[in-house]
Amino acid sequence: MLELENLLLVKGVVAALRFQDDGTLAEAAGELEQIDAHLAAEMCQANGRFMQHNGDMFMTLSGADGWPASGWMMAGDRLSVCGASDVACFVRNGEVSLNEVFRALAEI
Prior knowledge:
This protein is of the alpha+beta class.
């Protein structure tokens, strides 16, 4: 939980979660209701798998180095979600530095 709490210290991060390989919520911190945290964990796990698959395909088809990607992001109008491995966080677009968020995610 301490790692998630540290992620909340990044300006603009409003919630963070960790999930299992099957999408089950492992832990959550910040501004997420419990039911929303469970749904968010499922979404983040599925999106991470999808992005991993796309990165593998891109690497195979292009021969380009640097894939698969080590993180992903879904941008919304006001909130976005950023993920890496089994951790994701929700951010307020107008307040956040995505570079800081992905540095923090990489440290976890």
